[in-house]
Each structure stands twice: as structure tokens, then as C-alpha cells.
Amino acid sequence: MTLIGEIIAVFLTLAIFSFLYKDNPAYRFAEYLIVGVTVGYGLPLVYKNAFQPFVLQRIFVEHKFIFLIPVFFGILFWFRFSRNYGWLSRYPIAISMGMVGAGVTMSMNSMVLVQVRQAMIPLETFNIFLIFLGTITVMFYFFFSKAHTGLYGKFSRIGIWYMMIGFGASFGYTVMARISLLIGRLQFLADTFKGWIA
Amino acid sequence: MKKNIPLAIVIILGFIFVGWTFIPAKWMQDDFYTAFLEFTKTMSPFAVFLGIYSLVSMHYNRIRRKVPKWGYSYVTLTGLVVTATLGFVYGTQAGTPVQWIFRNFMMPISATMFSLLAFYMATAAYKSFRARSIEATVLLVAAIIIMLGQVPLGMAISRSWPINILDISQWIMDVPNLASKRGILLGVGLGSVATSLKILLGIERTYLGGGD
């Protein structure tokens, strides 16, 4: 069973790598397979971790029939593809969207107020000044109600430089993560082939 | 009935949730919130089943209509049925056939697919370097410094330099990177608040879908 597993894993790894040359049937096979297998993997998990404890257990074991209401709304999701009754699926979507109200205040707090509070500190060191300058100039860049010309344009240009450094840092980290994955896959191929030869 | 009641549900629930963040009372923080969470948890598996139905019906129709490359839909459906059946019969714990599938099918494909991005990112970096703009160069220099700061090679190179590359890498992360991310995050935050408010006030209705 281990050998079969290794052969399959090696074949699928090489099938995906073959896309570097061009799109081909082996790559497409692996691509379609991962979609099916991933959904197939998730289905029993959803049944066991969500459907069983939150639906079956509550209604048929605990006899909490109040939960028939959310079950009813959940079933309305399935009308999404009906031509005549598709509008019924708007009800569960609307209930799920209700949490958007919390989003207004929570986004305002975590993404705006906390960030502003962190930025508004005494400019005691040169680095703090640089952070303050960067934050302001990046925001200048995203303010499109004024033409980016003259002194304002120069400030927004500083913002672009800051963003390029930020994007470069993210790019560097992402490349490192991908390369470590690549090394892992190449290591796997090398070890497996070495094992087969030995 | 078709659009106005769902819209009213969103607006009423939305304002209740605005209140939820401001009212520290137990009936609001615990009773209402827990009840709502239980309600949505009970609804959620039905949405997942809808997604799976959508995937199956799409591939079934591809096979039925014999659209180009329809044969691959068999691969998806077979993978789904076999894995789900094994999952239901044997469970999903360690040592089950589903974990064998995870180790030998899902893990190699997904890890290799993500590792492919290393090649495409290298190509993109080469193309941006060929553009020869100052901004592209700044981006690449920052990326190279960050990468060198993460590997032993960078340490070895910078041993003879007056400044350690790890310090420069850390400074980039702590100062210009922080400033740019904070500026962007402030913009994203304000945009997120504006979008949420548009939904809350019924101005944004695209989530309800088209039709009557």
C-alpha cells in the first residue's frame, strides 16, 4: 500500500510540474482530481462536525424542536437554482448578512481607530517619524479627489516608494514560502526515487 | 415578499448587531448572540450541501452535453464519490483510507501547485526588472534584502559588511513595511465600513441576486 501511495504521489507531483512546459492532459487530470477529492474529503467532515451535532443531535436526540426553524431556513438555500422559487434562498442569505452590522463598528475599531491610535505617538525617534511620514503619504496616494500634482504629487510619490518597499517585503516572504515548498517537493521526489533504487 | 422582506431582515438584524457592539448587557452579549450563532450554525451545513450540489450538477451537465474536455468531469466526480464514500464508511481519523488519500493525493497536488508559483514569481520579478522603473527596482531590492535576511547565505555574505543584513531586513519590516501596511489598512478599513454601511442602509443589494 505504501508503494502504491508513493507511485501515485510521484505521478501527481510530476503531473503538476509538467504545467511548467505547457498545459497537458496529465496536469488537467490532477487538477480535476484535486477538486473532486477535496470536496469528497470535506463532505463527511461537514456531516460529522456540523450536520450531526447541530441538526440531527438537537432535533432527534435532544428533541429541541425550536431548531426546526433554522433547518427550514437552511433548506431554503436549496431553492437557489429554482427558476420560480429562487427568491426563497434570499431569506437565509439575509439572515447570514445580518452580522454586517457588527462589521461596521468592529472594522471601524480594529482597522481604523486602533491603527490611528498606534500612529499617533510622539515622534521621539527618527524611525517613528519615518513610520508617521509613510502612513500619511500612503494615505495621500489613495486620496483621488485631488490631482496628484505639485507638492501634493511629491508627497504621494513618497507614498508609492513606501508601498513598493512594503510590497517587496511581502513578495520576498511569499517567494521564500513557495521556494521552501518547492524544495520540499523536490526532496520528496529525490528521497522516493532513492528509496526505489535502493 | 421576494426582495423587501429579506432586505428588512438584513437592516433590522444589522442594526441589532450595531447595538450588540455597544450594549454590554448579558441578554445582548450572551443570550441574543448565542441564539443567533446557534441559528446560523444549524443553517450552515445546508449551504455546504448546496455548494456540493452545484459542483456535481455542473460536472454532470458537462458530461451530458459533451462539452470540450468533458471526460475530465468523470475524474472530479469519481474522486468526490470515492473519497466521500470512504469517509462515511471508515471515518476520517488517522489510519483510515481517507487519510491515505489525503497523504498521497491531496497533499502532493496542493503542495506542488503552490510550489509552482515560485517559478511564476521569478518570471514576474524578471519582467518587472526589465521594466527598469525606479519603483520596480525598489520593490526588487526590498524583496532581495528580505529573502537574504531569512537564509544562512545572507548571513554569510553580510559577515564582511559593516551592517548585518538581518538588521536591514528587520528594519524594512519594522519601519517602511509597517508604514505602508498601516496606510493601506486604514484605507481598507474605511472602505469596509462604507460597504457595510451601504448594505446596512439597503443601498447595496447585489447579495440578494438578480430578478424580482
Task: Explain the overall architecture.
The complex is a heterodimer of chains A (198) and B (212). Chain A is mainly α. Helices cover 78% and strands 0% of the residues of chain A. The two termini of chain A are 18 Å apart. Chain B has a domain at 1-90. Chain B is 82% helix and 0% strand. Chain B is extended and about 70 Å long. The chains are: A mainly alpha (198), B mainly alpha (212). At the A-B interface, α1, α2, α3, α4 and α5 of A face α1, α2, α3, α4 and α5 of B.
Strand content of chain A: under 5%
Please provide the ordered H/E string of secondary-structure elements of chain A. Answer: HHHHHHH
Task: Please give the count of helices of chain B.
Answer: 8
Radius of gyration of chain B: 26 Å
Biggest chain-to-chain interface with counts: A-B, 116 and 123 residues
Oligomer: heterodimer
Order of helices and strands of chain B: HHHHHHHH
Low-confidence stretches of chain A: none
Helix fraction of chain A?
A: over 70%
Radius of gyration of chain A equals 27 Å
Helix amount of chain B: over 70%
Q: What does the overall shape of chain A look like?
A: flat
Give the distance, in angstroms, between the N- and C-terminal Cα atoms of chain A. Answer: 18 Å
Gross morphology of chain B is extended
Question: What descriptors fit this protein?
Answer:
heterodimer; A: 198 residues; mainly alpha; flat; B: 82% helix
Map the helices and strands.
The complex is a heterodimer of chains A (198) and B (212).
Chain A: H1 2-17, H2 25-61, H3 68-76, H4 90-97, H5 100-119, H6 126-141, H7 150-197
Helix pairs in contact in A: 1-2, 6-7
Chain B: H1 4-22, H2 26-65, H3 71-90, H4 97-131, H5 134-150, H6 152-158, H7 165-174, H8 176-200
Helix pairs in contact in B: 2-3, 5-6, 5-7, 7-8
